[in-house]
Amino acid sequence: MQASKISAGMLIVGAVLQFMSPAFADQLADIRSRGEVTCGVYSNVEPFSYPNAQTRQLEGMDVDLCNAVAKQLGVKAKLEPLAVEARIPQLKLGRVDLVVANLAYTKTRATQIAFSDSYYSTKEVLVVKKADAGKKLTDFAGQKISAADGSTSAQSIPLSIKDGQAVTFHDTSSAFLALEQDKVKGFVTNQMTARKIAKQVEGTDGAVAIAAEPMLIEPIAVGLRQNEPAMLAAVNKALASMEQSGEMSAIFNKWLGPKTPYGLTRTDKVTPINQLKFTPVS
């Protein structure tokens, strides 16, 4: 009787484990099985991912990167538009497979998700009114500074400006509007967005300048779920292949290069984050 109970119990456990096994399947194998990888991208942040004015389809640097990585994995890309602050939660919840949304490495994020090798580094910079163009970061001590909510731009404020008061907004446009309306003394964003904004308002009463000292230097990478070594290795292999073929530089130049409004020159190569010299934010 006892043996029968044990045998029945083992059968039940075996059946449960068999039923549960698909939930613990290797992510890369699952993606290749369904032939599609879901990329979390920005919903409306130029030049990374934003709707085309005519087609309303998402386009941008991160869209191209997602499509290129998907091609390297041998699957199609499915784009999932996300707000800035939703990037990490949606990845952790499994609603997206990857986050390709100008995602900067931070110590806190690294405890929650995995990061691919970095494919370029960016700067967080302080945008100020033209009258404050010659000031140093120390001159803004104790001042209100705006940034997008959930961004490393916001995190950089107390790190780079003594007693700096971070005032956050849902998106970059709203954060810049606060500077225009003199609600804050400065606005922090990445250098690409800062350059574009400065050009757009150049020669107007609302002209702005970019402070000479950067707030932060940040490596940008693809965000992945933790404990998925095969997926991480595959994405890093894809990035390395894109670097070697020149595709990575071509995508960068198309959206951020010298002939774009951002006028940047790509000097970084695809590199493991632990081999980079930088001070990560919390």
UniProtKB/TrEMBL annotation:
Boundaries of every Solute-binding protein family 3/N-terminal domain copy: 36-259
A family per Pfam: SBP_bac_3
GO biological process, one term: amino acid transport
UniProt entry keywords in alphabetical sequence: Signal, Transport
Signal sequence segment: 1-25
Keyword Signal set for record: yes
One Gene Ontology cellular component annotation held by this UniProt entry: extracellular region
Domain of life: Bacteria
Family in the record: Belongs to the bacterial solute-binding protein 3 family.
Protein name: ABC transporter glutamine-binding protein GlnH
Species for this entry: Paraburkholderia phenoliruptrix
Chain's gene name: glnH_1
